[in-house]
Structure of DNA-binding response regulator:
Amino acid sequence: MRLLLIEDDEFLGDAVKTGLTQFDYVVDWLKDGEAARAALKTESFELIILDLGLPKLSG
């Protein structure tokens, strides 16, 4: 399953990505809303994990 993680906090993003990849999830990690919006135009994901307070474009 391919997931999109949108999180600007380095520590939290790394922890979530590491935890999910241990269960064989494929995790694309982006750190701002604009990058996520661009990725969603060209890629598909089964699940999105979204931080509500992001730089540039908030969740």
User: Anything to note?
Assistant: The radius of gyration is 11 Å.
